[in-house]
Amino acid sequence: MNEIERLVEVLTQLNEAYRSGEPVVSDAVYDEKVEALRALNPAHPYLGAVEPETFNGRGKVRHPTPMLSTEKAYKTEDLERFIRRVEKAAEEIGISTIRYEVMAKLDGLAGRDDGAVFATRGNGFEGYEVSSAFKKGVVAYGGRGRGLGEIVMSRSYFSAYLTDYFEHPRNMVVGIITSDVLNVHSKRALEAGAVCFMPYTELPTWSGSGPDVIENLDAIRQEVLGEVDYPVDGLVVQVVDEALRIHMGATSHHHRWQIAIKTKGESAITTVERVTWQVGRTGKVTPVMEVSPVKVSGATIRRVTAHNLERLRSERVGPGAQIEIIRSGEVIPKLERVLVPAHEVVIPTVCPVCEAPLSEEDKFLLCINPLCRAKAEQRIIHWFKTLGNADWFGKKTVQKLVERGVDTLEKLYTLTTIDFQGHGFGPVQSENLYNALGMSRTEPVEAWRFLAAFGVRSLGKSEARNLLAIYPLAELMEKTGDELLAADIRGFKAAKCTNIGTGLALVRETMRHMLEMGFVFIPSSSDQGTVAESADSLLLGKGVVFTGKMMRGSREAMQEMARRKGAVVQSSVSGKTDFLVCGASVGPKKIEKAQEKGVEVIDEDRFYALLEEG
To answer: At the topology level of CATH, where does 373-443 sit?
Structure first.
């Protein structure tokens, strides 16, 4: 794999994480990698398409006109180049006066509302139908049918109530849209009217000439963004004249008459007072900088994420270091750069909680002590946060329980109201805690949430969704890393499969125990109607792979039909595949490979016949 291929693979993974509401890097880091790819290969197909999003279990709708992405400007020179391009196009059709409008670039979930259909952007041509968002409580700002916009959460509400639970408002917005059952935090935010679909036409705008935009950009930014109480990551500058827009047209990625001026957010300079180390549920020990209090975007910052061990060591981040910090998306403070390094950087050799020796792995320190109290605390906190259907088990409550020996889910779920009182909780709180345990078992929850809640390394919500679209939960929990790797699932490389297989083995008995307690799952789109439809189906239990361009319907629709008949839809041919359904333009080698494995190769007509037979 060459440098370009590796970069595209990384970008694809980062985009998938971002679109699913679980970003692993900041926008700035992602944009840097995009520009690195552009420098290596300006014509690469990844740069010419809208970054796709996938919402499993949601129907697709085609947009009447493409919902494209936006070209980005990182420097004043980029903006000036855009203005010159517009002036040249205007001259070509005889327009002498050019007006621009400037508005906030929202950092939410893009969508289109025509009054009857509400759909996400998807791949720009097809989106996912999510009208259920309004039934959940998402506010249609200005009413329904206002066209293009974004689902966003009030920044002030998020800062006041949710920064301890979520890293960015967009993560929570994606969860609200994709989940069939809302967690308590989402319910409260919706009840408070803090989540809305904001049409672009309702945003405050500034208008003027091209030279005015360039000359007064900072003042325009303050004027436009000062009126917006939603997460933003820059400005959008666009041509007003419709005839000029039509003349300039669009690429497959963006409109040529529009550009986004990306901003990193407000920054400040402060001094590191000390570095503390936190232990996560998987034993990863990460540094957090405690800094001299400083105001950034209206908030007083005292703690800053220090990223990882390698950066701490290489850039000498320690007490006395002078650093520049930034609020990415104006929410979470992060280290931007080191201005004056520290004289000394002390890296711990033992766990800050259990004092067991630390090992170094993949740029991080790792506590390998299975009995570490901090790991137990984080596992239980992660469990309730991911399930999202029961409250009361906050950080202090969990710490108190773990200190008293309640350090596993098995032990926790045996506790009664009297037991909680015995651990030092008051009568009312003890009753609430006991009821919350019952609620977590009886309130329906998606199976992927249940799976992701065990905190298996490399098995987050997105991976859980993808795997459960292929395997039933009971089958998946028995898989090894080698079996997952052999299945050749897109996005599941060797390291990820190894981590998941190892992690599943460690929690398998706990998973069985929890399942025996009767947790209630929401039927997934692949489960609904299966009992009624698949009892006599010829596809029941059969492994089915779809390949090629389908002519009688979309591949996703055909996969859904197969699932409803009890089939196991797979991403690639393996020894467990029974049918390879071929559309147009399928290579002979793929067919030969399937036949060598004893897979029956069929066309679309035969597939539809199988749906009807039985």
So the answer is: DNA polymerase; domain 1 (1.10.150)
Q: Residue 446 forms beta bridges with which residues?
A: 522
Maximum Cα interatomic distance, the chain, rounded to a whole number of Å: 83
- Eight-state DSSP code of residue 150: E
Could you tell me which CATH class the domain 267-366 is placed in? mainly beta
CB 322 within 8 A of CB 339: yes
Contact call for residues 570 and 470 (beta carbons, < 8 A): yes
What DSSP string runs through 524-551? PTTTTTHHHHHTT-TTTT-EEEEESB-S
Fold of 530-612: Rossmann fold (3.40.50)
- Helix (H) or strand (E) holding 109, with range, is strand 109-113
Strands (E), 5-73: 60-62, 69-73
- What's the pLDDT at 568? 74
557-589 pLDDT, tens digit each: 687 778 777 777 776 777 778 899 998 878 787
Per the prediction, the chain carries an average pLDDT of 85
- Domain 446-522: state its class: mainly alpha
Is this prediction's pTM over 0.85? no
Q: How far apart are CA 412 and CA 415, in angstroms?
A: 6
Q: What is the pLDDT of residues 166-180, one digit of tens each?
A: 767 888 898 888 887
Are 446-522 and 530-612 equal in CATH topology?
no
Question: Residues with catalytic annotation?
Answer: 105
- Spell out the domain ranges in the chain: 1-48, 58-262, 267-366, 373-443, 446-522, 530-612
Q: What value does the CA radius of gyration of the chain take, rounded to a whole number of Å?
A: 26
